[in-house]
Amino acid sequence: MNHIVEIDSLVKTYGETRACDGVALTVNAGELVALVGPSGSGKSTLLRHLNGLARPDSGSVRVLGVDLATARGRGLRALRRRVGMVFQQFNLIGRLTVLENVLTGALGRDPLPRYGIVTWPKADRAAAIEHLDRVGLADRAYQRADSLSGGQQQRVAIARMLMQRPELVLADEPVASLDPESAAQVMDLLFRICLEDRLTVVCSLHQIDLALAWTRRVVGLRDGRVVLDQPTAALDQERLRRVYVPAAPVAVGAGA
Ligand SMILES: Nc1ncnc2c1ncn2[C@@H]1O[C@H](COP(=O)(O)OP(=O)(O)OP(=O)(O)O)[C@@H](O)[C@H]1O
Ligand SMILES: [Mg+2]
Protein backbone atom coordinates (compact mmCIF):
# COMPACT_ATOMS: atom_id res chain seq x y z
CA MET A 1 0.00 0.00 0.00
CA ASN A 2 1.77 3.16 -1.07
CA HIS A 3 -1.12 5.58 -0.72
CA ILE A 4 0.06 8.27 1.65
CA VAL A 5 -3.24 10.15 1.55
CA GLU A 6 -6.65 8.65 0.83
CA ILE A 7 -9.62 10.98 1.04
CA ASP A 8 -13.09 9.96 0.00
CA SER A 9 -16.39 11.88 0.02
CA LEU A 10 -15.02 14.38 2.52
CA VAL A 11 -17.62 16.91 3.65
CA LYS A 12 -16.86 19.71 6.11
CA THR A 13 -19.25 22.56 6.75
CA TYR A 14 -18.89 25.73 8.78
CA GLY A 15 -22.36 27.16 9.26
CA GLU A 16 -23.74 27.61 5.77
CA THR A 17 -20.33 27.17 4.10
CA ARG A 18 -19.32 23.85 2.61
CA ALA A 19 -15.56 24.21 2.94
CA CYS A 20 -15.11 20.65 1.62
CA ASP A 21 -17.94 19.37 -0.50
CA GLY A 22 -17.35 15.72 -1.36
CA VAL A 23 -13.59 15.79 -1.86
CA ALA A 24 -11.89 12.64 -3.12
CA LEU A 25 -8.11 12.65 -3.40
CA THR A 26 -5.42 9.99 -3.36
CA VAL A 27 -1.74 10.87 -3.09
CA ASN A 28 0.95 8.26 -3.63
CA ALA A 29 4.36 8.06 -2.00
CA GLY A 30 6.82 10.57 -3.41
CA GLU A 31 4.26 12.72 -5.21
CA LEU A 32 4.62 16.51 -5.19
CA VAL A 33 1.12 17.95 -5.35
CA ALA A 34 0.13 21.60 -5.72
CA LEU A 35 -3.24 22.57 -4.31
CA VAL A 36 -4.57 25.62 -6.14
CA GLY A 37 -7.83 27.50 -6.22
CA PRO A 38 -9.38 30.86 -5.39
CA SER A 39 -9.52 32.25 -1.88
CA GLY A 40 -12.11 30.36 0.16
CA SER A 41 -12.06 27.29 -2.12
CA GLY A 42 -11.11 25.03 0.79
CA LYS A 43 -7.35 24.51 0.40
CA SER A 44 -6.44 25.19 4.03
CA THR A 45 -9.44 23.22 5.29
CA LEU A 46 -8.36 20.23 3.23
CA LEU A 47 -4.78 20.46 4.53
CA ARG A 48 -6.06 20.74 8.10
CA HIS A 49 -7.85 17.44 7.69
CA LEU A 50 -4.57 15.77 6.76
CA ASN A 51 -3.05 16.22 10.21
CA GLY A 52 -6.24 16.03 12.22
CA LEU A 53 -6.61 19.74 12.92
CA ALA A 54 -10.05 19.51 11.34
CA ARG A 55 -12.47 16.58 11.56
CA PRO A 56 -14.72 15.56 8.72
CA ASP A 57 -18.49 15.86 9.11
CA SER A 58 -18.66 12.82 6.87
CA GLY A 59 -16.44 10.87 4.53
CA SER A 60 -13.07 9.28 5.19
CA VAL A 61 -9.57 10.67 5.57
CA ARG A 62 -6.67 8.24 5.85
CA VAL A 63 -3.11 9.50 6.16
CA LEU A 64 -0.13 7.12 6.38
CA GLY A 65 -2.63 4.38 7.07
CA VAL A 66 -4.25 6.18 10.02
CA ASP A 67 -8.00 6.89 9.99
CA LEU A 68 -8.24 10.57 10.90
CA ALA A 69 -11.99 10.56 11.33
CA THR A 70 -11.51 8.55 14.52
CA ALA A 71 -7.85 9.02 15.63
CA ARG A 72 -7.53 10.64 19.04
CA GLY A 73 -5.01 11.18 21.82
CA ARG A 74 -1.85 9.16 21.49
CA GLY A 75 -2.71 7.82 18.03
CA LEU A 76 -3.27 11.32 16.70
CA ARG A 77 -0.08 12.65 18.27
CA ALA A 78 1.89 9.76 16.78
CA LEU A 79 0.49 10.56 13.34
CA ARG A 80 1.30 14.26 13.70
CA ARG A 81 4.92 13.43 14.40
CA ARG A 82 5.04 11.77 10.98
CA VAL A 83 3.54 14.79 9.21
CA GLY A 84 5.72 17.89 8.77
CA MET A 85 4.08 21.29 8.40
CA VAL A 86 5.31 24.48 6.78
CA PHE A 87 3.15 27.54 7.36
CA GLN A 88 2.81 30.92 5.70
CA GLN A 89 3.87 32.68 8.92
CA PHE A 90 6.92 30.45 9.70
CA ASN A 91 5.89 30.20 13.41
CA LEU A 92 9.41 30.43 14.79
CA ILE A 93 10.12 31.46 18.38
CA GLY A 94 11.79 34.81 17.72
CA ARG A 95 13.74 35.15 20.97
CA LEU A 96 15.34 31.72 20.63
CA THR A 97 18.35 31.02 18.46
CA VAL A 98 18.00 29.56 15.00
CA LEU A 99 19.51 26.28 16.27
CA GLU A 100 17.04 26.01 19.18
CA ASN A 101 14.16 26.58 16.80
CA VAL A 102 15.36 23.74 14.60
CA LEU A 103 15.79 21.52 17.66
CA THR A 104 12.14 22.04 18.63
CA GLY A 105 11.33 19.93 15.56
CA ALA A 106 12.58 16.95 17.58
CA LEU A 107 10.17 17.68 20.44
CA GLY A 108 7.54 15.34 19.13
CA ARG A 109 10.01 12.48 19.55
CA ASP A 110 11.45 13.82 22.77
CA PRO A 111 8.69 15.47 24.79
CA LEU A 112 10.93 16.85 27.59
CA PRO A 113 10.87 20.62 27.87
CA ARG A 114 14.42 21.89 27.38
CA TYR A 115 16.09 25.14 28.36
CA GLY A 116 19.27 26.00 26.53
CA ILE A 117 21.13 24.33 23.71
CA VAL A 118 23.45 22.29 25.96
CA THR A 119 20.52 20.33 27.37
CA TRP A 120 19.82 18.76 23.96
CA PRO A 121 21.45 15.42 23.12
CA LYS A 122 24.61 15.83 21.05
CA ALA A 123 23.18 13.75 18.22
CA ASP A 124 20.17 16.09 17.95
CA ARG A 125 22.41 19.13 17.90
CA ALA A 126 24.54 17.59 15.16
CA ALA A 127 21.41 16.73 13.14
CA ALA A 128 20.06 20.26 13.57
CA ILE A 129 23.30 21.77 12.29
CA GLU A 130 23.20 19.38 9.35
CA HIS A 131 19.64 20.46 8.46
CA LEU A 132 20.65 24.10 8.78
CA ASP A 133 23.55 23.43 6.46
CA ARG A 134 21.14 21.98 3.95
CA VAL A 135 19.06 25.14 3.94
CA GLY A 136 22.23 27.25 3.74
CA LEU A 137 22.03 28.76 7.22
CA ALA A 138 24.54 26.83 9.35
CA ASP A 139 26.48 30.06 9.88
CA ARG A 140 23.40 31.64 11.50
CA ALA A 141 22.85 28.87 14.07
CA TYR A 142 23.50 31.03 17.14
CA GLN A 143 21.68 34.13 15.96
CA ARG A 144 18.21 35.00 17.27
CA ALA A 145 15.55 33.77 14.88
CA ASP A 146 13.84 37.18 14.75
CA SER A 147 17.02 38.76 13.38
CA LEU A 148 16.63 36.87 10.09
CA SER A 149 14.78 37.92 6.93
CA GLY A 150 11.45 36.33 6.07
CA GLY A 151 12.98 34.02 3.49
CA GLN A 152 15.68 32.93 5.94
CA GLN A 153 13.06 32.34 8.65
CA GLN A 154 11.12 30.09 6.32
CA ARG A 155 14.32 28.17 5.56
CA VAL A 156 14.78 27.68 9.32
CA ALA A 157 11.19 26.43 9.49
CA ILE A 158 12.03 23.92 6.75
CA ALA A 159 15.08 22.75 8.74
CA ARG A 160 12.84 22.39 11.82
CA MET A 161 10.39 20.34 9.78
CA LEU A 162 13.26 18.07 8.59
CA MET A 163 14.31 17.57 12.21
CA GLN A 164 10.99 15.82 12.65
CA ARG A 165 11.94 13.26 9.96
CA PRO A 166 8.48 13.50 8.39
CA GLU A 167 6.98 11.04 5.94
CA LEU A 168 4.48 13.55 4.57
CA VAL A 169 5.00 17.30 4.21
CA LEU A 170 2.05 19.70 4.23
CA ALA A 171 2.68 23.30 3.26
CA ASP A 172 -0.04 25.94 3.37
CA GLU A 173 0.96 28.94 1.26
CA PRO A 174 4.60 28.58 2.34
CA VAL A 175 5.82 31.56 0.33
CA ALA A 176 2.82 33.88 0.42
CA SER A 177 4.55 36.27 2.86
CA LEU A 178 7.76 36.52 0.83
CA ASP A 179 8.94 38.79 -1.97
CA PRO A 180 9.11 37.05 -5.36
CA GLU A 181 12.84 36.39 -5.25
CA SER A 182 12.81 34.87 -1.74
CA ALA A 183 9.65 32.94 -2.65
CA ALA A 184 11.39 31.29 -5.59
CA GLN A 185 14.45 30.49 -3.45
CA VAL A 186 12.36 28.94 -0.68
CA MET A 187 10.29 26.87 -3.12
CA ASP A 188 13.46 25.69 -4.83
CA LEU A 189 14.89 24.58 -1.52
CA LEU A 190 11.73 22.96 -0.19
CA PHE A 191 11.05 20.93 -3.30
CA ARG A 192 14.68 20.01 -3.98
CA ILE A 193 15.03 18.62 -0.45
CA CYS A 194 11.71 16.79 -0.63
CA LEU A 195 12.71 15.25 -3.96
CA GLU A 196 16.12 14.21 -2.62
CA ASP A 197 14.54 12.66 0.46
CA ARG A 198 11.64 11.18 -1.55
CA LEU A 199 9.12 12.91 0.68
CA THR A 200 5.50 13.23 -0.31
CA VAL A 201 4.33 16.85 -0.44
CA VAL A 202 0.94 18.54 -0.60
CA CYS A 203 1.39 22.29 -0.92
CA SER A 204 -1.24 24.98 -1.37
CA LEU A 205 -0.08 27.85 -3.54
CA HIS A 206 -1.52 31.09 -4.81
CA GLN A 207 1.30 31.67 -7.27
CA ILE A 208 0.43 29.45 -10.20
CA ASP A 209 3.83 29.96 -11.82
CA LEU A 210 5.52 28.49 -8.74
CA ALA A 211 3.07 25.61 -8.68
CA LEU A 212 3.89 24.81 -12.27
CA ALA A 213 7.63 25.17 -11.83
CA TRP A 214 8.05 22.89 -8.83
CA THR A 215 5.23 20.38 -8.54
CA ARG A 216 4.36 17.30 -10.56
CA ARG A 217 0.60 17.31 -10.12
CA VAL A 218 -1.93 20.10 -9.83
CA VAL A 219 -5.18 19.70 -7.93
CA GLY A 220 -7.63 22.57 -8.35
CA LEU A 221 -10.30 23.29 -5.76
CA ARG A 222 -13.33 25.43 -6.22
CA ASP A 223 -16.18 25.83 -3.70
CA GLY A 224 -14.84 22.87 -1.75
CA ARG A 225 -14.73 20.51 -4.74
CA VAL A 226 -11.88 19.06 -6.76
CA VAL A 227 -12.43 20.49 -10.23
CA LEU A 228 -8.99 19.76 -11.71
CA ASP A 229 -6.46 16.99 -11.14
CA GLN A 230 -3.75 16.71 -13.78
CA PRO A 231 -0.02 16.11 -14.12
CA THR A 232 1.72 19.48 -14.21
CA ALA A 233 3.48 18.58 -17.43
CA ALA A 234 0.16 17.97 -19.22
CA LEU A 235 -1.85 20.74 -17.60
CA ASP A 236 -4.80 22.01 -19.60
CA GLN A 237 -4.48 25.81 -19.38
CA GLU A 238 -8.14 26.39 -20.16
CA ARG A 239 -9.22 24.08 -17.35
CA LEU A 240 -6.76 25.76 -15.02
CA ARG A 241 -8.25 29.14 -15.94
CA ARG A 242 -11.73 27.85 -15.20
CA VAL A 243 -10.67 26.92 -11.66
CA TYR A 244 -10.42 30.66 -11.05
CA VAL A 245 -12.94 32.25 -13.38
CA PRO A 246 -16.59 31.68 -12.49
CA ALA A 247 -18.53 29.73 -15.11
CA ALA A 248 -20.90 31.92 -17.11
CA PRO A 249 -24.44 31.56 -15.75
CA VAL A 250 -26.63 29.31 -17.87
CA ALA A 251 -29.28 31.39 -19.56
CA VAL A 252 -32.79 30.52 -18.44
CA GLY A 253 -35.63 30.83 -20.91
CA ALA A 254 -33.27 31.23 -23.84
CA GLY A 255 -34.70 32.77 -26.94
CA ALA A 256 -32.98 36.14 -27.09
N1 LIG B 1 -12.82 27.70 11.29
C1 LIG B 1 -13.69 28.18 10.39
N2 LIG B 1 -14.84 28.75 10.78
C2 LIG B 1 -15.73 29.21 9.88
N3 LIG B 1 -15.55 29.17 8.54
C3 LIG B 1 -14.41 28.63 8.10
C4 LIG B 1 -13.43 28.10 8.99
N4 LIG B 1 -12.41 27.60 8.24
C5 LIG B 1 -12.74 27.82 6.96
N5 LIG B 1 -13.94 28.43 6.87
C6 LIG B 1 -14.63 28.78 5.62
O1 LIG B 1 -14.49 27.69 4.73
C7 LIG B 1 -14.22 28.15 3.40
C8 LIG B 1 -12.90 27.58 2.92
O2 LIG B 1 -11.86 28.19 3.66
P1 LIG B 1 -10.33 27.86 3.48
O3 LIG B 1 -9.59 28.66 4.48
O4 LIG B 1 -10.14 26.39 3.52
O5 LIG B 1 -10.05 28.38 2.01
P2 LIG B 1 -8.65 28.59 1.25
O6 LIG B 1 -8.81 27.97 -0.08
O7 LIG B 1 -7.55 28.13 2.11
O8 LIG B 1 -8.60 30.16 1.07
P3 LIG B 1 -7.31 31.14 1.01
O9 LIG B 1 -6.75 30.99 -0.37
O10 LIG B 1 -7.89 32.51 1.22
O11 LIG B 1 -6.36 30.74 2.09
C9 LIG B 1 -14.24 29.66 3.47
O12 LIG B 1 -15.51 30.11 3.10
C10 LIG B 1 -13.96 29.96 4.93
O13 LIG B 1 -14.53 31.18 5.31
MG1 LIG C 1 -5.91 29.06 2.95
Describe the structure.
This protein is α/β, with parallel strands linked by helices and 256 residues long. It has one domain (29-44, 75-244): P-loop containing nucleotide triphosphate hydrolases (Rossmann fold), CATH 3.40.50.300. Helix content is 32%, strand content 25%. It contains 8 helices and 10 strands. The chain has helices spanning 43-49, 73-81, 98-103, 122-134, 150-163, 180-196, 208-214, 237-244; strands spanning 3-14, 17-28, 32-36, 58-63, 66-67, 83-87, 168-172, 200-204, 217-222, 225-231. Strands 6-7-8-3-9-10 form a 6-stranded mixed β-sheet, sandwiched between helices. Strands 2-1-4-5 form a 4-stranded antiparallel β-sheet, covered by helices on one side. The longest helix has 17 residues, at 180-196. Magnesium ion (MG) binds at residues 43-44, 172.
Number of helices: 8
Q: For this structure, what is the CATH class?
A: Alpha Beta
Quaternary structure? single chain
Report on the biggest sheet: 6 strands, mixed
CA radius of gyration is: 20 Å
- Unreliable parts: none
Which ligands accompany this protein?
Answer: adenosine-5'-triphosphate, magnesium ion
> What number of structural domains do the residues give?
1
Q: Which structural class do you get from the secondary structure elements?
A: alpha/beta
The overall average pLDDT, rounded, is 91
Percent helix: 25-40%
Q: Write down the overall geometry.
A: globular
As a percent range, the share of strand residues is 25-35%
C-alpha end-to-end distance: 56 Å
Q: Can you identify the CATH superfamily?
A: P-loop containing nucleotide triphosphate hydrolases
Order of SSEs, N→C? EEEHEEHEHHHEHEHEEH
Organism: Spongiactinospora rosea
Keywords: ATP-binding, Cell membrane, Hydrolase, Membrane, Nucleotide-binding, Translocase, Transport
InterPro entries: AAA+_ATPase, ABC_transporter-like_ATP-bd, ABC_transporter-like_CS, ABC_transpr_PhnC, MetN_ABC_transporter-like, P-loop_NTPase
Protein name: Phosphonate ABC transporter ATP-binding protein
